Amino acid sequence: MVNFKRVTIEDVAREAQVSITTVSRYLNGHYEYMSEKTRMKIANIIQRLEYRPNIMAQGLKANRTKQIAVVVVNISYPFCASVIRSLSEVMAPAGYGLLVFDSNGDKQRERDFLLSLRSQNVDGIVIQTNGANADLLQNISKELALVMIDRRIDIANAANVVTNNEQVSYDVTHYLFTTGYENVIYVTEMENGVSTREERLRGYRNACLKAKRQEWIERLDKSNEESYFHTAERIRKNMNGQSFAIYTANGLLMLRLYPWLQKLGIQTPNPMGLATFDDPDWASVTTPPLTSIRQPTEEMGRLAAKLILEKVETGSTENMPVLQILPSELIIRDSTMLKD
């Protein structure tokens, strides 16, 4: 006969041969109080017993909703999907649910979401901001746990989890010059105060300065297909028979620009190299495979989850790091293997 009796925290503790306090600490993400062996043992027992914390009871006891909001600029983008998945992997065992919102990078839509979440009393917010609502985020940080991910805004009560955009953008540009490309064309959007765009552009410019090469920056409107066509045409008209590499500020730009570049009929990697920030799944299956910058999305998601849980559980921002920078990795593939 099947036993439908609800599994309790006492059952988990009994099976794991640990105290209820230890299980509670595990559920709240306080792993520093236990060994890795104990943590894995509790996790396996929770999975085997299919234990689910009583989120409502936990929330009432601690005056919390046990809900964390996540606001991203494009939920279909691989970076965002990976971060959300990593957040969930940490939050779910701790008994927290995720409310996910897609701002589409729109200032007003993001602002509306933030105002709504503020009134819903969520316990915290992880946000990939469009950069235009710093005033509202500053006020929210005084009331809720707040972590900015990917895009940085310096707010005293909040943490930023970002990658080393400027350095790795410098690295890929420097690599392209040293490989032998005469020009490196940087394709981006208008900065509009978005920290990732500013930092990647700065890295590109510093590499041009170091190599004593002329900057070539193409800014396009990602929502306008004609913008991609005109960018490709300007490149075709001005390449002057020299080898050149096109480096896009993110994978979405390369995805949209790539078909127009193919129509130019120019061989890759010689004379045209291709590289992009981000390392989407399709980068390794293009012809030739695409040189890219792989961001540590899983690590960023897990770190953001850890920081937001610490803030929620302690209710304090003391000792909370304002800025956490995780390194990205340059992945060199055949699209930039310039042959003499």
Automatic annotation (TrEMBL):
<dbReference type="InterPro" id="IPR010982">
    <property type="entry name" value="Lambda_DNA-bd_dom_sf"/>
</dbReference>
<dbReference type="GO" id="GO:0003700">
    <property type="term" value="F:DNA-binding transcription factor activity"/>
</dbReference>
<dbReference type="InterPro" id="IPR000843">
    <property type="entry name" value="HTH_LacI"/>
</dbReference>
<dbReference type="Pfam" id="PF00356">
    <property type="entry name" value="LacI"/>
</dbReference>
<dbReference type="InterPro" id="IPR046335">
    <property type="entry name" value="LacI/GalR-like_sensor"/>
</dbReference>
<feature type="domain" description="HTH lacI-type">
    <location>
        <begin position="7"/>
        <end position="62"/>
    </location>
</feature>
<keyword id="KW-0238">DNA-binding</keyword>
<protein>
    <submittedName>
        <fullName>Transcriptional regulator, LacI family</fullName>
    </submittedName>
</protein>
<keyword id="KW-0804">Transcription</keyword>
<dbReference type="Pfam" id="PF13377">
    <property type="entry name" value="Peripla_BP_3"/>
</dbReference>
<dbReference type="InterPro" id="IPR028082">
    <property type="entry name" value="Peripla_BP_I"/>
</dbReference>
<dbReference type="GO" id="GO:0000976">
    <property type="term" value="F:transcription cis-regulatory region binding"/>
</dbReference>
<keyword id="KW-0805">Transcription regulation</keyword>
